[in-house]
Amino acid sequence: MSVLHYVVENHVAIITLNRPEARNALNPEVACRLADAWEAVRQDDEVRVAILTGTGSAFCAGADLGQLIPLYSGARKPENEWDERIVADRYLTRRALLRDFDPEKPVLAAINGHAIAGGMELVQGTDIRVSVAEAKFGVQEVKWAIFPAGGSTVRLPAQMPYAKAMELLLTGDLITADEALQLGFLNYVDADPLTKARQIAARIAANGPLAVKAIRRSVKACLGKPEQEALAIEVEVSAPVFLTEDAKEGPRAFMEKRTPVYQGR
User: Is 134 part of the annotated catalytic residue set?
Assistant: First the structure.
């Protein structure tokens, strides 16, 4: 059985981490397949939204400390094609974690259980997040004398209050889903996060895909920029959207009181 499932349904790619016996920890094969899945999301024009979820009781426990990390430290030699890919491409794991790769489309996390270390960093790379109440979140790398290098020192202080982010980064403590919701790190806590994520993804996928991509791109590009610089970026990103066929179809459908049919062009 594959350690990662990838299916596309109604313009929504559903990516499922499937290594429940290891709490969906990222071993070399999972990292390679996940990096490939994000590339597929970006390249497939039929995909307008992606959902990332997991099987079993955990969303993702982060990097596999027995398989993945020893490859980077040189403590373990490559044993198969997945190991070889990791050793040959040191940035592959970063792409899997959405640290150095942008799929250019909205990504939702349907968090079925604990998201810790690299699992928490995966969540940070997503745009909209739904979690079960039982999940806990944290970056515990500091407890093992390693660095949360999947983007946490950059993203976490931007995604929750600075003081709380620093507390989590420096102590390695965990927070509950309810705490993460109160901090604004999550959108919803729900007993069935995948169903909730599917509902949100369906609403996004029904919108103009070029407008969706452009809005997301503008938000990410403008974060942290001075207002005037950010507004200039917004103009640059938004202008081409008004020249698309979809931008003609949307108002026309509104006037004709019908559901618009968007073609992504």
Answer: no
What span, in angstroms and rounded, lies between the C-alpha atoms of 170 and 82? 32
What is the predicted pLDDT for the residue at 1?
A: 66
pTM of the predicted model as reported, rounded to 2 decimal places? 0.95
**114 strand-pairing partners:** 58
Fold of 209-255: Lyase 2-enoyl-coa Hydratase; Chain  A, domain 2 (1.10.12)
3-state SS class at 12: strand
Q: What is the pLDDT of residue 195?
A: 98
Q: Single out the catalytic residue among 21, 46, 121, 134.
A: 121
Amino acid identity at 59: F
Query: Within 10 Å of residue 130's Cβ, how many Cβ atoms?
Result: 26
Answer yes or no: 121 catalytic. Answer: yes
Give me the catalytic one of 141, 167, 229, 249: 141
Q: What's the order of all strands across the beta sheet hosting 188-189?
A: 4-9, 12-17, 49-54, 107-111, 128-131, 188-189
User: Would you state the pLDDT for residue 184?
Assistant: 97
Fold of 4-205: 2-enoyl-CoA Hydratase; Chain A, domain 1 (3.90.226)
- Residues (pLDDT < 50) of the chain are none
Q: What is the pLDDT of residue 252?
A: 95
Domain ranges of the chain: 4-205, 209-255
